């Protein structure tokens, strides 16, 4: 596995750090309203996100801007509207050997497929999101083991895997969910092992995904 050179804190985390504290909006005007990153209109608490592919950043979007970039071709190569559905995958069969082949040194990680064919693994840390490149042969084995990931939407969807504390959870989620998890871990991590609080937060995060899936 080759490591992707990135800052200590992934650039996408900047737009979602607030999501662990509030709705995830990125700008607050003098009147106290949270604002859309594109047009500065006020945001409702439950709003959509756009991936700025060129800047490698996630932006908060009002309803009008979200509708503008809805659809497979809308926005071209600049903005991509992130989906909202989270789907749990059962009986994935990812064993320890396959996990090791992915080159991820932790038990909580997400995987994103890009248009150039690369698959990037991201994982939370006290510093933010760390990233590395998954070897093609390892990802091919993953597709044989978990056929559902062959249809991952490029850039905007991720396979999210939680093997921490004995868990066996596998999800297909929007990319912004991954960075909300990163923000939670970064905010609540204490000491070498993270502390009880951060793992309670991780458990609550996955409980929230289960509620959405139902």
Radius of gyration: 17 Å
Distance between the termini: 36 Å
Mean model confidence by pLDDT: 83
| Low-confidence sequence ranges | 1-9, 13-26
Instruction: Supply the number of helical segments.
Output: 6
Numbering strands along the chain, what is their spatial order in the largest sheet? Answer: 6-11-10-7-8-9
User: How does the helix and strand content classify structurally?
Assistant: alpha+beta
* Biggest sheet record: 6 strands, antiparallel
Number of separate strands: 11
- State the order of secondary-structure elements, H for helix, E for strand: HEEEEHEEHEEEHEEHH
Helix amount, in percent?
25-40%
Q: How much beta, percentage-wise?
A: 15-25%
Question: Number of folding domains?
Answer: 2
As an assembly, this protein is: single chain
């Amino acid at each position: 596995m080759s490591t992707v050179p990135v800052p200590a804190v992934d650039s996408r985390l900047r737009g979602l750090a607030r999501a662990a504290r509030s709705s995830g909006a990125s700008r607050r005007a003098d009147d106290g309203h949270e604002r859309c990153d594109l047009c500065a209109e006020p945001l409702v608490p439950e709003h959509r996100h756009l991936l700025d592919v060129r800047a490698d950043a996630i932006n908060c979007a009002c309803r009008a801007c979200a509708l503008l970039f809805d659809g497979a071709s809308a926005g071209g190569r600049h903005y991509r509207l992130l989906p909202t559905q989270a789907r749990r995958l059962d009986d994935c069969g990812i064993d320890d050997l396959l996990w090791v082949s992915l080159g991820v040194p932790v038990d909580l990680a997400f995987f994103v497929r890009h248009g150039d064919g690369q698959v990037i693994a991201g994982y939370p840390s006290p510093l933010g999101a760390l990233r590395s490149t998954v070897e093609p042969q390892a990802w091919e084995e993953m597709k044989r083991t978990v056929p559902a990931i062959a249809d991952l939407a490029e850039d905007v969807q991720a396979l999210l895997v939680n093997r921490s504390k004995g868990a066996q959870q596998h999800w297909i989620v929007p990319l912004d969910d991954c960075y909300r998890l990163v923000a939670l871990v970064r905010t609540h991590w204490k000491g070498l092992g993270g502390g009880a609080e951060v793992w309670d937060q991780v458990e609550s995060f996955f409980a929230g995904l289960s509620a959405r899936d139902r």
